[in-house]
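Q: Convert this sequence to structure tokens.
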Amino acid sequence: MELPQPRHEERAAPGARILLRATKYDGTAHWIQPFCVESDDGTLITARYRARTPIYTSRGEFRSPYDSRVYFWRDRWYNVFRLSRPGCPLALWYCNVTTPPTFDGRQISYVDLDLDVSVKANGCITLLDEDEFEENRLRYGYPADVIEHAQEAALEVAALAQKRCFPFNQG
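A:
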């Protein structure tokens, strides 16, 4: 499988409605979620999602109880969801290890690589879904460079959280 290459031409306009389309490594649909763009500097798209808005997953419809601010870097192998319940302070950050996303003017697309990092407001950092990563690494035949990027991305996001670097300083 050829991985999508980051595209820097398309910019998301503040206030625009866009879709996130995440797939598994073989191209099968995994996650479709609507967002509203807050900003796009050509490298980082910041978007938001309101609690209870439908999210369509490979397991069926899901409605998150969290309002989210999401950070999609075009050149990084992860994204960060800042989650809080409506009217309440930060609950946690949820970080997905993925291929660098592409943006075509209407949707953000990436391949979900299964590893996730949870960062709680108290600073507790947990690596999640290592078993799923291992299972899908074998199932889909992740190439060595994809495995390396995914593992490095999980370490990078955990280090940023530990140091309280952006966006983990956005309590």
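The chain has a mean pLDDT of 93.
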